[in-house]
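Hey, can you fold this one?
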Amino acid sequence: MYEMPFTAPRAVAEIDTDAIAHNFRVLHHACGGRPIAVVKADAYGHSLSLAVPALLAAGCDFFAVATCEEGIAVRALAPTADVLVLGYLPLSQLKEAVAAHLILTVFSAEHARALSHAAKALALTPRVHLKIDTGMHRLGLLCEKNDIRSLFFLPNLQICGIFTHFSTADTDPTATRQALAKFCALRRELPAPLFAHAAASAAALTLPEAHLDATRQGIALYGYPPVKTALSFRPAMRVIAPVVQIKELAAGERVGYSGAFVATRRTRIGTVPLGYADGISRTLTGFSPTVLCDGVRYRAPIVGRVCMDYLMLDLTAIPAKSGQTVCVFENFDAAARHAGTIPYELLTAISARVPRAGRGEL
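Sure. Predicted structure:
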């Protein structure tokens, strides 16, 4: 009987929700306290709708996001969990943020006063965490305690937490300890005890004294610890796609725009429908991903330039067939090194036109 070829999806980001739950438990066991799962940027590209239920099932009851829209999406999935918006929220969204019971961040005295004024006008009292700048110099209140103490007297703000974010937790433990000491000294001098969190993935794994009341589980939650560790993290995303055409090239023939690749021998070129519009950066031209084909891993260089919708792989040593689905990206560490960036960027760059599917759903 004739088997219908080319029925596989164009490309899929396959999400291992068991890996996310496993990584959450590993971090919780190592750090204690109340873990905060950071699920901003659609769970670092892994899909809120897949990651949040898996984390809830693993025992998570506190999530952090970057925007009001993300917070509302998490609230729909986790009706009773705490949800913290980590940074700037336009005051035009205050009413819907409070309606979704989101915890907001105050990052300057001016911002606190504006938020207080807007909340009073709407007869709202949002819960807020104070963001303290201990050296990042991005967002945050500087550690002049008199200025910060005055915020407790503003109406219509329920200040219930305080946090900071370290700028060198993965590179400079001495500077990180100094920043932590500065943060803890400020916390002790405030007029009310506050729920405190300071450590994201790097500090959570290297600086036990920074665990405080909670740790923020970010990139490590998705399998990419930013520091060396013996803990067993598992990458949670892999990108699969079909080889839609295979061509045999003779030595001297060229591949891709501007003929950027020249075959030096007889070469099998496989075209895969993944390109920079799918989030596969042009900087990965020349990278050799580990391609999983029929359960066996091979090195398959990306030849020619990554196009908007396609990339071409050297399949000379790989027994892939036209129409066959292969795993093109299984671990983003090596790809990030080749591109001169970090796994965070590559994971969150995988675009919305690449559907996310839980492992086993395909």
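The chain is about 30% helix and 25% strand. Let me know if you want another pass with a different chain boundary.
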